[in-house]
Structure formats: structure tokens, C-alpha cells
Amino acid sequence: MSRAKGPLAGVRVLDFSRLLAGAGGTRVLANYGAEVIRVEWPHYPAADYLRFSAPFKEGQSGPNCSGFFNNINPDKRSFTLNVQSEKGKDIVRRLVAISDVVTENFTPRTMKSWGFGYDDLKKIKPDIIYVAESGFGHFGPYKNYRCYGPTAQAYSGLTYSVGLPGRPPAGWGYSYMDHMGGWYLALAVLLALNYRARTGRGQFIELGQAVIGCTLTGPVILDYTVNGRKSRENGYPPGNRAWHPRTAPHNTYRCRGTDAWCMIVCLTDEHWQNLCRAMGNPAWADDPKFATMLGRLEHQDELDRYIEAWTVTQDKHDLMYLLQRHGVPAAAVATSQDRLERDPQLQARGLYIPLNHPETGVQRYEGNPTHFEKTPGQPSRPAPRLGEDNAYVYGQLLHLSKEEIAQLQAEGVAGEAVEPVDRLLLDEIETERAEGVL
Amino acid sequence: MTAETSPTCLGSIRVLELADERSHFAGKLLGDMGADVILIEPPGGCGSRRIGPFYQDRPDPNRSLFFWYYNTSKRGITLNLETVLGRELLKRLVSSADIVLESFKPGYLDSLGVGYATLRQLRPDLIMVSLTDFGQEGPWIDFRMTDALHLALGGPMASCGYDEVAEGVWDTPPIAGQGYQAWHLGGVWAFMGALAALYHRQLTGEGQRVDVSIHDACAVSTENAVPTYDFTGRVVRRQTGRHASAYRTPPWQFRAKDGEYLVANFINVGPDLWSRIVAWLDSEGMAEDLTRDEWYLPSYLQEHMGHFVEVMERFIATKTAEEFFHQGQAVGVVTSKIHAPEDIVIDHHLQARGFWTEVVHPELNQSFLYPGAPYTLSETPWRISRRAPLLGEHNEEILGEELGFTRAELTFLREAGVI
User: Fold this and answer.
1) A222: which of A64, B10, B302, B403 is 20 to 30 A away, CA to CA?
2) For the whole model, what pTM was predicted?
3) Closest partner residue to B368 among A161, A226, A252, by Cβ?
4) Where are the alpha helices (DSSP H) in A60-161?
């Protein structure tokens, strides 16, 4: 391929991480040009659960067809290995010796129990960068607690921060902390790579998804540690109204159609006056009680009812454009369909990248929000099928012969090769070996 | 080695942050890892200094807790970029900088004559990270946005809220999460972009521009919402306290005896975990019909999750959320109490990890507990090196001692409205 190299070109990551919280992070490294090699279990039940997670296209199933998994794993390689077998462990050690980074998001005891703790791997590769992410981190009394995204969100106060006054928490309708956890894993690798580039030294980095969450509510925490004020006794969270800066109107208003909403925010008197103009200067808006921010805050229930009576007849996107043209901060509440079909901005940025996968066909992969001037950093290859790179890893990286690989497969150490790409590549490697290239 | 004497991860890297509430988090992430971050504010201060709450509830540019939290480990100077002299000072600082982190409207710095094209002349290997609402180009770049509006337009909000009251009918709107999460998302991506560019520069000597969009960052943070629509044409729908889904799913969120809420996920429950869960309920006489053998089949549990959840609701109603959290985890249940943010200040785990970080505010003769390290690095610890800068606090240190302006010249610059 003639494409320019990503910013992490030349970095090899031996990636034991799974699910969104781990694989979502190594995805960024792969998109940024690192060679990320997923270490996967040969047998389906123990493989990454994400491979079996919805969505699937009509009539498709199996470990290679999940739209969720595939979106999270473009540009990576996958090889299969029983890491609990002695020969499997030996293969891991040989790969560590030629890798820059090891990433994993098992519970803290798992890698150590296999003999792959940082201290073990450092002996093989002294400058190895080892990044371990788990739910609650590798030390502290809850280190062995189990954790998914919703657990981390609940623990850290993030779930509590979404909801209407007087109702139970609404929480995040997806694993926000799986995304963040993954990206922090990528950050940790990037930090350590920079340090190693400067000093030649590797290091061990641990992260806890739930702990990271506790750094994402800072001002509310400071209000308690500095001012002694508890959010739970002070009407927090205020639904779609503003916490700070306090301002009104600031809410989500029903629009025309099924479950259609537009959010409108007036931070200043000017925004409010612009909103009045956009509404056609209705008589109710002249009421002096709405003339000042304090008045609008005091009477915001009434204000919201008036505004919604106006918005409910309008299309949410038309309304957003009308308000933005009048200088009023406003946004349609966009569904996934809206983002894919009614968002000219994302389209102009090229955020959704169609990639053709041999089993599922074309999928629109989510791109990265970072656009580099000189180094590419977007997904360019679809997610690997389970074991797709067995030939590459066993043959090209470890220089095993076809017979040796077949032997490992027979012993259940390596997984079955994926047809037909793998077979072709194997033949290619055999040719190169015969020609003395390898 | 203590944190004070350890080498810092980003060592001698200098960052100029041309700042507002969008850029602060990325600047903090850099500063807390040891970069020398200089926050450059207009002479009246960043607008973010006016975001509450305030120390002792007294609004003041130096008392915003929002500003405090997001500007740790930075020094601060004032600079009026709309004056010729202000721009000259910026240029002199850029020649000593590795990274410029800026969050102005696209084209603003260019219009002042200090855009990327100009600044890279002064520092050929400069990395300029522009973190803006929509990136540098596109039809929406002039939209006026806030954190909550980004959650609406980028997709997170549509997945958050309460159950429908009838098929396709909601009596409540989608809900935007509090806590400036859109700024966090943008900040994390700006940090990743900066570090990747920095790594590339260390290897090749080449600097570059990195254009980061907060809207994009929100749009890629919604788990399987986009793949679901792409693969099935179905739109995920919000549900109370659990993942938005194309299909209705049983609850994960439970109300405990003390009126507090907790989350407990029962996916992937194999026979071992199942037997421990049932033994736990049975030991308290609350297992009902769950002791029957067919429940051991994961597929049976999946099909009868609704009934299982009802039994769990009755069981959880006998325990406080804190009790269920720890007893459940001991059994292997993936669960946590739903804490209010401040609840975790007294949590054992964070205390034992030394998470809470004391930050000294010498101007107040006090120190306060701040949330601490998101990651633990064996060689180069995370550290808050100083509290957020007071307005113009380091004008003398940076413009005087470093750039060599005399006290009289600094006075002139102040009177001329430059600093």
C-alpha cells in the first residue's frame, strides 16, 4: 500500500484486551498506525464476547459478523492461541520479545496467574510498556470486584448525574465508561510511548474504569470538598436544565412527529431576545417577568410551557436551523439514524467510513475525531476475522513452518486457519521461506 | 521515589493553551502528566472563570470551582491577542513552545495573523491542536454550542432517559448527562491527538496540525447505536437506567431498602455464578422458585429474565444499596450502588488507593481535596503540580523573567491593555 504512515507506525502492540473497554482503546492505536495483534482464544465460547454481540445482519451469525465487534476492531490483526497451554505460553513470550506494548483488561489476577505479569514480561523485554485496565484498578480493596460500563458509571456518580428531579436516575443509555476506559487505555499507551522515546524506558500502567469515572464529575465534587454542599440535597441533577452556569430557558422541547425533540439554550439576554424574534415576538414574551435572566430562571416552568407550545408544531431540524440563523444556541436531539442520514457536518468530515468485510459486506465504521495534517489516523481495513492472521503471526513473525503450525493446531494450541485468505498467505510464506526471504 | 522527585512523563514539553472551557480538560491532562502548560487568557480572564459554583459562593474570577478543577498544573498569563503587541508576545512564546492547544472559532487566529501558517514559521516543528465544536470546516461550524447541546446533536442524549409509557410514546424527553461530558470527550481526543503527534515528532522531527471536533467525539461515543442502525435499520430507544436498545429489555436498576438505587447486570451468568446467586438468596429464604434445576440453563434464564428480575427486586428491597453492592460482589454479581458524585469521597476503595489529592491554595491559606489520578504509572506518576492560576498570576514570571521585559515595560503593557 502506498498510503502514508500513521503517527504510531512501527509500534507493535500485543493486545489481550477485549470488549469495548479494552478493544476500543487499542482500536485508536491501530487506526493511528500501530500494528495491533489481538490474542484470541481458538474456541468460540471463550473468545471475545463482543464477537457474539448484536447487531447482526439478517441471516448472519458467528464470530465474524457482529457489527458491534467489527466497528470496534478495524485495522487490527487477530490470531488464535490457547495461552493456558505450555506451548501457548512460550509463543506469548516469543511475541512479547518482539513487541513494544502489551495491553490487557482482565481482572488483576488473570495475567499474573498465566505468568504474564509486568515483572515476568519485563525480563523478556526490559523496555516493554504494559498497560493493564480493569474495573476498579489493580490495587485497593475492590480490585477484584467485577465491573462493566454501567457498574463503573454507577460507582463513580455518573449514572446519578443523568435524570429528572424527583425520579430515579436515568443513567447513561450505553457504556460511556467503556468508551472512556478504552480511550484512557490508549492515552496511557501514548504517554508511555512518548516517555520511552525520550528515555528508552518502559513502564507499567494500571487503570480502573470506575476510578477514571471519578475524575469526570470534578466541579460537583469540589462543591462538596470545598463548600461542603452535597449535590443530592440540592436538586442535582436538574434534568435538561442548567447546573452551572445557571441560565434559562435551557431545556429540551417536544417537536412535531414521534419522539422528536430540540434543545434550546439561552446563555445571555441577547440569546433570549433572538429567540423572541425567531418566535415572531409573541405577546407572552413581553411579560416583564421574562425580561431578565433572574426572572426567566424564577419562572422557567411557565416559560418552558410557552416555548414548547411553539416548538411542538415544528420539525426538530428545521427548528434548529431557524434558531441558529437567529443567533440562538439550539440543537436537534439526534438519533443514530439522524447522524447517518441528516448530519451534513459529519458527512463533510467523513466521519463514517465504509469498509468492505469479507463476511458482512460493507459497514460504515465510525472514524476518529482527530484529523492529522500529515499522518493518517482513520480506519482503513475492516475488523479481522477470528484467527485471520494466524499465518502472519505464526509464519511471518515467529517463522514457524506449515508443519509446525499444523502440529500446534492439532494439539489445540493454535486455532484453525481461516479460509481462504490464510491458506494463500501460508503458501506465500512458504514460497518466501523457500526463496530465503524469511 | 516520591511523586515530587520522579521524572515526569512529558518532561520538558511546553504547551500554550489559548483557552476556553473547551480546551481546559485537555490542558489539565497534559499538565498533570508534567507538561509545562501556560494558559493564555484575555486580560479580563477566560469566560470559564465565571462558571460556578464558587468558593464560599462568592463569585470572583479566582474562585470558580469549575476553573479550579480544569486548570490544575498550569501557569497563567494574560494576553490581549487583539493588539499588535499581544500578538508579538504570543509569537515570542510560540518559538519556545512544542504544542499550541487552541479552541477558538475556526479562522479567528488566522484573521489576527497568528494562525497555524504563521506560527509554524516561528517554530517549524510546532504541533497545533485545534479543539473546536465541529472541526475547522463544514456547514455547521458557525453554530453556537454548549456542552448539553453537543450531547443532543452528537447522539449521546437520544440514548439517555426513561422508559416509554406506551409503545412509541414517552412522557419525558431524552436527558442530557450533567458534568460537561462533551468537553471531556473532546478533551480526551485532543489529548490523544497531541500525544500521537508528539510521538511522531520525536521520531521524525516533523510537527503538524491536529484538527479535533467535539461533535465527532460525541458521535463516536454511543456504543452500538450506529452499527445497529447500519446493520438492521433499527433505532435504539432509551430506557430507564439501562442501555438504549432496539428491543425492550428487563431492568438492571433496582431500588434498595434505604431508597437508594443500584445497578446489577445479569448477563453471561454461567452455572457457577448462578449456583452462588441462588445459594445466597436461599440462605436468606428469598430464592422462591429459582432453586429449580432448569434455571441453571443460561438460555432458560435469558428467556425468563423478567421473572428472575422480579425475584431480585424483592430480595434487593431487603438490603441497603451499600449492603447489596458488597455482598453481591462477594458472590460475583456485577453490581454497584449508584452513588451521588460526592458519596465516593468517603468510599474505602478510593481512600485506600490514595485517590484524593490535597491541593494547596496558598492565597487562601487552605488546601482542598481534589479528584486524583485516572491512571497509575510506575515510572512517571500523575501529579497536580499546582492549583489553577490566579488571573495573570505568572505574567511577571513568564513575560518578565523569561522574555526579559522589565517591570516598567510590564506596567506599560498592562496600561496599554495588552496583558
Assistant:
1) B10
2) 0.96
3) A226
4) 67-72, 86-97, 108-113, 118-124, 149-156
